[in-house]
TrEMBL record:
Gene3D superfamilies: Peptidase G1 (2.60.120.700). GO terms for molecular function: glutamic-type endopeptidase activity. Residues 1-16 form the signal peptide. The active site is at 175 (proton acceptor). Keywords: Signal. This is Concanavalin A-like lectin/glucanase. The keyword Signal applies. GO terms for biological process: proteolysis. CDD domains: Peptidase_G1. It comes from the Eukaryota. The keyword Transmembrane helix does not apply. InterPro entries: ConA-like_dom_sf, Peptidase_G1, Peptidase_G1_sf. PANTHER family: ASPERGILLOPEPSIN, PUTAITVE (AFU_ORTHOLOGUE AFUA_7G01200), PUTATIVE (AFU_ORTHOLOGUE AFUA_3G02970)-RELATED.
C-alpha cells in the first residue's frame, strides 16, 4: 500500500494573507503540498504535474544493504477529508546494492496500487508527467508520460466499494510508502507545472489558495527523539520542491 490515509499531524504553524494561507504541517510519512480547496468554490476535476526521477541514495541509518528503501511521488485527491484517495505517481526503490529502479502506478486507496507494466521503467533524470482526471467521486483516469522518451500509458480505475473522494482538494506529495522506517534519500524531488483545474474551468497551482505544506519528521528510537527528514516549500505558485534533510 503506497498510501496511509491517516496522517499524524503533530505540529503546525501558519502564515496568512488576505487571499492565501500556508500552513506548515509535520507528519510521519508525507511531504509536499495540499491545496485545501478551490478559490472558485467548485471541485477539482483534473490535476497534473511533472516530476523528476531522483538519484536515490541508500540510508544506512534505516537499514542494511539488501533491505528495500523507497520514496513515492504522486498527484491526487482526497485524504483525511474523504474516505479514499485517488492518485497516480512513481515509486523509486533502492536496496543498497545494485538494484535501483522506478515504477509508475495508479491507486484508489484503500485498494492496492496497480503498476503500469506496459510503461518502460524510467531512468534517473527523466521527467514524468502525471495527469489525473476525476470523472466522478468513484472513478478516475490517469495518464503517465515520460517526457524524455515519449512513452505513455493510461488507465481508468474505480474506487473500492464504500469509498470515494469529493474533489475538494488536490495534492502533490512525496510519501514514505507504508509509513515505515524505509524512506530512501531522494535528494530533491521537484513538482513542476502543478495545476488543478476546477469544474468551473479555472486552473490553480498549489500556491494560489489555502495550502498545507508537509514536512516529515521521524524517530528512529535511538534516544535522540524525532528529527526533520524533509523540507518542503513552494518556489512559485505552480511549483513544489521537497528536499532531503535526513541522515545518510
Amino acid at each position: 500500500m503506497l498510501t496511509t490515509l491517516a496522517l499524524a499531524l503533530l505540529a503546525t504553524s501558519t502564515t496568512a494573507s488576505p487571499t492565501k494561507r500556508q500552513t506548515q504541517v509535520r507528519t510521519k510519512n508525507y511531504s509536499g503540498a495540499k491545496l485545501l480547496s478551490s478559490p472558485d468554490g467548485t471541485i477539482f476535476t483534473y490535476a497534473t504535474t511533472i516530476i523528476n526521477v531522483p538519484d536515490t541514495q541508500f540510508v544506512s541509518a534505516e537499514g542494511s544493504p539488501g533491505q528495500l528503501q523507497a520514496s513515492a511521488a504522486w498527484v491526487g485527491y482526497g485524504g483525511m477529508e474523504d474516505n479514499g484517495i485517488a492518485q497516480t505517481g512513481c515509486v523509486f526503490d533502492n536496496d543498497g546494492q545494485d538494484d535501483r529502479y522506478a515504477r509508475c502506478w495508479t491507486e484508489f486507496y484503500p485498494d492496492p496500487p496497480v503498476f503500469y507494466d506496459d510503461l518502460p521503467s524510467p531512468d534517473i533524470g527523466d521527467w514524468i508527467q502525471l495527469e489525473l482526471y476525476l470523472t466522478s467521486p468513484t472513478t478516475a483516469t490517469s495518464i503517465v508520460t515520460n517526457t524524455n522518451t515519449g512513452d505513455q500509458a493510461s488507465r481508468d480505475f474505480t474506487a473500492p466499494d464504500g469509498h470515494s473522494v469529493s474533489g475538494n482538494n488536490a495534492e502533490w506529495i512525496v510519501e514514505n510508502p507504508g509509513a515505515r522506517n524505509n524512506l530512501v534519500n531522494f535528494q530533491k524531488e521537484f513538482f513542476e507545472g502543478c495545476q488543478a483545474v476546477t469544474q468551473a474551468g479555472n486552473s490553480y497551482g498549489p500556491g494560489d489558495g489555502n495550502v498545507e505544506v508537509f514536512y516529515e519528521a521521524k524517530d528512529l528510537g535511538d534516544g535522540n527523539g524525532a528529527t526533520q527528514w524533509t523540507n518542503s516549500f513552494l518556489p512559485s505558485d505552480s511549483e513544489v520542491e521537497v528536499d532531503w534533510t535526513g541522515p545518510t
